[in-house]
Specification:
- The chain is built from four helices and no strands.
- The longest helix has 33 residues, at 27-59.
- The protein has one domain.
- Helices cover 71% and strands 0% of the residues.
- The chain is mostly helical.
Length: 149
C-alpha cells in the first residue's frame, strides 16, 4: 500500500517539525531536515500534478473527449493542475480528520467510495494510480535532492 498525497504531506510536516525541534541541539542537522521536508512536500505536489497531466492527456484522453466543457488549451492544462492540487488537499483533509478522531490505525487505508458497486475495477484503478503517484513522488524527490542538496 502506497501513501496518498495527504499522507505524504503528513510525513513532510513531521520531518519539518523534527527539523525545528532538532535546531535546539544541532543547527546543521536541523537545516538539512527542514530542507528535506520542504523538498518532499514540493515533490509530492509536483508528482501529483504530473500524474494528473499523464492521466488526462496521455493515458486516458478518451475519458474526457465527450465532456461538455468550455476549457481548451492552456486553461485545460491549468484545470488539470488545479484538480491535482485540490485532490492532495482533499486527501490531507481526510488525514486531519483521522488524526483528530484518533484513528491512527486507519492511516494508509483507503476509503472505497463505490463500495464494490462496479466490481473491483475502480478500486484496482485507484490503487494503480496511487502507486504511480507514489513512484513519481520518489523520483521527483530524488531529483530535487540531487539538485538542491
Amino acid at each position: 500500500m502506497s501513501p496518498n498525497g495527504g499522507e505524504c504531506m503528513l510525513i513532510c510536516g513531521l520531518v519539518l517539525v523534527l527539523g525545528v525541534v532538532v535546531a535546539v541541539f544541532d543547527l546543521s542537522l536541523s537545516l538539512s531536515l527542514i530542507k528535506l521536508g520542504a523538498l518532499f512536500g514540493s515533490a509530492t505536489m509536483v508528482a501529483n500534478i504530473a500524474h494528473g497531466f499523464l492521466h488526462h492527456l496521455v493515458l486516458h484522453p478518451d475519458r474526457v473527449q465527450n465532456m461538455k466543457t468550455t476549457l481548451h488549451g492552456w486553461r485545460w492544462i491549468c484545470a488539470i493542475a488545479e484538480g491535482a492540487v485540490i485532490c492532495v488537499f482533499s486527501e490531507w483533509g481526510r488525514v486531519v480528520g483521522l488524526l483528530e478522531r484518533g484513528e491512527y490505525d486507519l492511516l494508509g487505508m483507503r476509503f472505497d467510495w463505490f463500495c464494490g458497486v462496479w466490481g473491483e475495477g475502480p478500486r484496482r484503478q485507484e490503487m494503480k494510480n496511487n502507486q504511480m503517484r507514489a513512484v513519481l513522488t520518489v523520483v521527483v524527490f530524488a531529483f530535487l535532492v540531487h539538485v538542491f542538496a
